[in-house]
Structure formats: structure tokens, C-alpha cells
Write a structure and sequence with these properties.
This protein is mostly helical. It is built from 3 helices and no strands. α1 packs antiparallel against α2 and α1 packs antiparallel against α3. This is Succinate dehydrogenase.
Length: 97
């Protein structure tokens, strides 16, 4: 019975391996662009604070810059990719046991 489960789990293992690799590549590429956008938004926020005297707009841009920084949404994406990768290794350990 366990052999049948292992045979059914093999396609899921292949799909998870490919999906984790593709998502990690996309995460790396998108992280570079999001870091660049975060820097630009931070500069705009400082400009709104200093030059335009609009603190509400500056705070809004700083919040957006934080969300696009490596500590915001990319950190959540990295956590989810890590969970997917851990599921992949768990399934791999089940098949090889």
C-alpha cells in the first residue's frame, strides 16, 4: 500500500521541484526590481517631506517603499517559497524511505 502512495507522490514531487526552482528564479529577478523601486520611492518620500512639506504623502511613499523593500512583501514571498521547498523535501524523504 505504501508503494502505491509513493508512485502517486512522484509526479507531485517533480512538479514541486520545478515550481520551487521557477519561483526562486522569479523571486531573485523581481527582488532586484523591487529594491530599485523601493529606493526610488524613498527618494520621492524625502522630497515630499523636505521640498513639498507634505507629510501625509511622504509617509504614504515611505510605507510603499517599505512594502517593496526586502523586508516587506519579498520577505513574505521568500517565506512561502521556503514552505514550498520544505514540502518538496518532505515529499522526497517520503519517497526515498
Amino acid at each position: 500500500m505504501r508503494l502505491i502512495f509513493k508512485i502517486f507522490a512522484l509526479p507531485f514531487l517533480l512538479v514541486l521541484s520545478l515550481l520551487a526552482a521557477v519561483l526562486m528564479f522569479l523571486y531573485d529577478v523581481a527582488g532586484w526590481f523591487l529594491s530599485l523601486a523601493s529606493g526610488i520611492l524613498a527618494v520621492i518620500a524625502v522630497g515630499l517631506f523636505v521640498l513639498q512639506h507634505q507629510p501625509v504623502g511622504g509617509v504614504a511613499f515611505l510605507v510603499l517603499a517599505f512594502l517593496l523593500s526586502p523586508y516587506g512583501l519579498p520577505a513574505v514571498a521568500e517565506f512561502l517559497i521556503g514552505l514550498l521547498d520544505e514540502l518538496n523535501y518532505s515529499l522526497r524523504r517520503f519517497i526515498t524511505s
